[in-house]
Amino acid sequence: MSIKPAPRTVEPLVEAFATVLRRRRLAQDLSQEALARRADVSMRFVSLLELGRHMPTINTMQKLAKGLGVPLSDLVREAEEEPAKE
């Protein structure tokens, strides 16, 4: 008898932020490590954020925006406009 893990639920806005973060990072040709250095967070944390496995705090989102050289409001707006995945 195998035990199946409970399905992982991801808040739509967390998933949308993850998509926007990854898209913005790749558009600047940055590695996760480079963004992590710029934002003063760990590379592992950037990875988990991009996978939608962590919900970033406002402070973390601000650090990431600064690391990307964009206003936080741009990231939030893009996340809000990101289509929901079914």
From TrEMBL:
Keyword NAD set for record: no
InterPro entries documented for this protein: Cro/C1-type_HTH (IPR001387), Lambda_DNA-bd_dom_sf (IPR010982), TransReg_Diox_bact_type (IPR050807)
Name of this chain's protein: Xre family transcriptional regulator
Keywords from the UniProt entry: DNA-binding
Keyword DNA-binding: yes
A GO term, aspect molecular function: DNA binding
Domain HTH cro/C1-type: 21-75
PROSITE patterns per the UniProt record, alphabetical: HTH_CROC1
Superkingdom to which the source organism belongs: Bacteria
GO terms under cellular component: cytosol
One matching Pfam family: HTH_3
